[in-house]
Amino acid sequence: MNTLDNIEVDITVELGATTMPIHHMLRMGRGAVIELDAAENDPLKIYANNTLIAHGEVRVEDGQLRVEVTEKVLRRG
């Protein structure tokens, strides 16, 4: 099992996405709001090494944000 201790996995959680020209992004100031393509109750997308592996939702416990996995994404292969 010691071999598994050294494997690195990049985990990414996506709240939503949008597309905008780079010049709009460069003009944004502190506190700017970016509208995403997701509603507040839509599931988060959870990626491991850029591969979608699960969906989840945000939880707040003891003042800390957490991501709870609600559904694993099965890969067909």
TrEMBL record:
Pfam families: FliMN_C. InterPro entries: FliN-like_C, FliN/MopA/SpaO, FliN_T3SS_HrcQb, SpoA-like_sf. It is found in: Cell membrane. One of its GO terms (cellular component) is plasma membrane. Gene3D superfamilies: SpoA-like. Its main location: membrane. One of its GO terms (molecular function) is cytoskeletal motor activity. It comes from the Bacteria. Keywords: Cell membrane, Cell projection, Chemotaxis, Cilium, Flagellar rotation, Flagellum, Membrane. GO terms for biological process: bacterial-type flagellum-dependent cell motility; chemotaxis. Belongs to the FliN/MopA/SpaO family. This is Flagellar motor switch protein FliN.
